[in-house]
Amino acid sequence: MSFNIGLSGLYAANKQLDVTGNNIANVATTGFKSSRAEFADIYAASKLGTGQNTIGNGVNLAAVSQQFTQGEVNASGGILDMAIQGGGFFVQKASDGSLEYTRSGAFRADKDGYITNNTGTSRLQGYAADENGKITKGGLVDLQLNLANLPPKASTKVDSSSNLNSSEPVIDQSKKPFDPLKTDTFTTSYSTTLYDSQGNAHPMVQYVVKTDANEWQSYTLIDGRNPDGSPPTGTDPNMKAPVPSTLTFDGAGNLKSIVTGGVAGTTLTIKDWVPGTVTDGVWKANDATANKDGIAINMSNVTQYNSATYRNPPVTDGYATGQITGLKIDGNGVLFATFSNQQSKAIGQISLASFNNEQGLQPAGGTTWRETFASGQPGYDSPQAGTLGSIVAGSLENSNVNLTNELVDLIKAQSNYQANAKTISTQSTIMQTIIQMT
């Protein structure tokens, strides 16, 4: 009996040494989770129970449980390196189509732009983004970096806030009719860059003239011409006088109305813009198109106070063609591509998985786990949803192995092994004594 008890102790101590040794071996493995050997005593029992004088039969390995505590998150500098601060697992699709779950965020892009693990054998899973950068939470897809240029977008609106100095002198337009080439015929001017369907830039200049105590007129020219391409000055027979918008303010300096071509409102809409280019002073249509609904210039935030005339930087939605210049990942796992035209666009979002019983996951090697019946089915969602953690970009989660504790456990396992070996040695000595008595 003592031989069997001692053997079971040796086996248990050997398993504890194996578990501890594996933890120590992976102390520098990214995303590794330490394990713990758990033991249970053995008793021989009958239908009537074990009895109060029963002696145990030794020990056995009850389980090797994994400790899913948070590892230390350290900056790594890798563009696609990611760490999870909190709960959840990255989702990867292996080459055989099965799903794997990992805490190791050492990712990279392959030759086709797909985001893979550091061995290139599994692809990171997440949610796709449409052409406008909107995340669509459908099924999981292979996340891919699209390195194509960002197509241009024609301008559709201009928003800004500005002030017109109420102390500015009135300009009598009957004596000084507006002429964009003569600075004494207008009070101030604002410039905004518009873009056509081909991504060509066009300067739009709004010339503002104070015509009365609480009244101003605004003339809008694009490429130095009327929006339809006709010249506002000169000897060209196609010359047309620019159409002004009349801004009226109340006594407190707040905008009352904007009237353009007899239509009142707070938005000036340019519907007849014909994009063109000016070469050596000659204008010619460039066959590009403008937004079919026109360009809405929001002028509702214009005031007339007794302070300096100014305009805050305008906000427009048009832009030229852009080349990808970088990638940013936010805490929600959204991948933003940045482009040379100062635009950014979401190209996908990382998905995290959670389980009711993480201890039930099956280790699959490569710092990955697989779903089992004991773990339950995974739940997928974006980072920071529910109990899922956030994504820390440019960082990696270190192993959660406590080396000091492991070395102490190693000494304990060694002592345990020696003690059980002593049990067997003592039993052998007793048997030799009995044999010699016969």
What do you see in this structure?
Helix 1 (2-25) runs antiparallel to helix 2. It contains 2 helices and 34 strands. The chain is mainly beta. The strands form 9 sheets. Strands 5, 6, 9, 10, 26, 27, 28, 29, 30, 31 and 32 form an 11-stranded antiparallel sheet that branches. Strands 13-14-15-16-17-18 form a 6-stranded antiparallel sheet, with no helix packed on it. It folds into 3 domains: 2-69 and 400-437, no CATH class; 73-150 and 323-397, no CATH class; 157-315, Flagellar hook protein FlgE (Tick-borne Encephalitis virus Glycoprotein, domain 1, Sandwich), CATH 2.60.98. The protein is 13% helix and 37% strand. The chain starts with a helix and ends with a helix. Strand 27 and strand 28 form a beta hairpin.
Summarize the structure.
The protein contains two helices and 34 strands. With 438 residues, it is mainly beta.
Please specify the SSE layout and strand pairing:
Blueprint: H1 2-25, E1 35-42, E2 58-66, E3 73-75, E4 82-85, E5 89-93, E6 99-102, E7 108-109, E8 115-116, E9 123-129, E10 135-142, E11 157-159, E12 162-163, E13 188-195, E14 201-212, E15 215-222, E16 244-249, E17 255-260, E18 263-265, E19 267-270, E20 276-279, E21 282-285, E22 295-298, E23 302-303, E24 310-311, E25 315-316, E26 324-329, E27 334-339, E28 344-350, E29 352-354, E30 362-365, E31 368-370, E32 379-381, E33 390-393, E34 395-397, H2 403-437
